[in-house]
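[job 4471] stage=fold_predict status=RUNNING
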Amino acid sequence: MKILVTGATGNVGRMVVDELLALGATDVRALTADPVKADLPDGVEVVRGHFGRLATVADALTGADKLYLAPHPPSAAGISRLAADFGVRHIVDMSGPKGAHWQAVEDGVEASGVPFTHLEPGEFMANGLHWAGQIRAGDVVRDAYPEVVNAAIAQEDIAAVAARVLLTGDHAGQSYVLTGPEALSRREKVAAIGAALGRALIYEEMTGEAARAHFRAAMGEAAGDWYLDGLERSVGYPQPVTSTVNDLLGRPAMGYREWAHRHADQFR
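[job 4471] inference complete, writing structure tokens
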């Protein structure tokens, strides 16, 4: 069984490759725009390509039985149609909460007629790295909406779920909401990073145009506005924790404090 992993240079896609190999997959093909950066393991078939050039994706789909589809809303429908044309039997896509920005991924996959499984993570724990520059510079983290609560998930767990779903049956037609094992406020996340570093970090709240300017500078105008507006909509609506990672993997999802300890060097 040949499994094609798209977005293999990205954080989650690269981890999916490693997880598949760890579970014993022997026929893994990776689509990546930058094979050198991806640094893929020996034994993985590498195809250079990009979502924006569907002809390169078609080359990668030749002979593929299953597909891990990285989240790229503009190309999801086109790639899924190609997957159907090339006889792919199962698409496992990473999208996000239903009805949100990533809905185009799920809609495109479903329209193809290929059996699918949707993975719907919320916020990544790795988004905490947006604070790394401030933490390296001092003990004050300036950010917005400190009391917004969600159950952020480690990208490592998303990849592990994707690999398990690709290699096992009974997942067609399913949508899996993926979260970490606990819901924390943004203030609590900063405190957890501080604990991993042995420091007491202070969360200083930003509001109004100062907050908007901050997020635009950090993420770009469109992404910064999208992220900040999402935080505003989340006020008073803590994200529920799901047991999906544990149910599918037979182990608990990684907690935020564990993630902070594993990635502490990125904040030093």
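[job 4471] summary: The longest helix spans residues 221-234.
[job 4471] exit 0
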